[in-house]
Amino acid sequence: MGDLMDNIMALQTVFQQVSHLANGPGATKLIALKPLLEKSTSELKKKFDRILEILQPSVRQKKKSKTLSQGLKWPFQKADVLQIIQLLERHKSELTFAMNSDQM
Q: Cys bridge to 98: 32, 55, 88, 103, which one at CB 3.0-4.6 A?
């Protein structure tokens, strides 16, 4: 869980840097970054929407889990978390590379 949060926070930092560049004076020169940003944003939104669906218990599950111990099960397997982390790392690396390319 810690690795997942660390990667989410690192990607958030990269998006903040990208946002700063995109709203800055040289925004029109961001040739590599703009299309990649749109692609990353779209792909990550779909993934995070799916994760939220999984994390939010359904009405049926809420009725079933009257005791605290029944409601505290982590819904992801280790392989699922590793796949999410790899996706986050890939987007972070691609965006960082594109930012650096555009700044040269």
A: 32
37 alpha-carbon distance from chain centroid: 12
- The secondary structure element, H or E, covering residue 39 is helix 33-55
Which tokens sit at 20? 């700063």
Residue scoring higher pLDDT (28 or 10) = 10
Structure token digits, residue 80: 């699922």
**What residues contact residue 96 under an 8 Å CB cut-off, 6+ apart?**
14
Tokens of 53: 């669906």
DSSP string for residues in 67-94: SGGGG------HHHHHHHHHHHHHHHHH
pTM score of the predicted model: 0.71
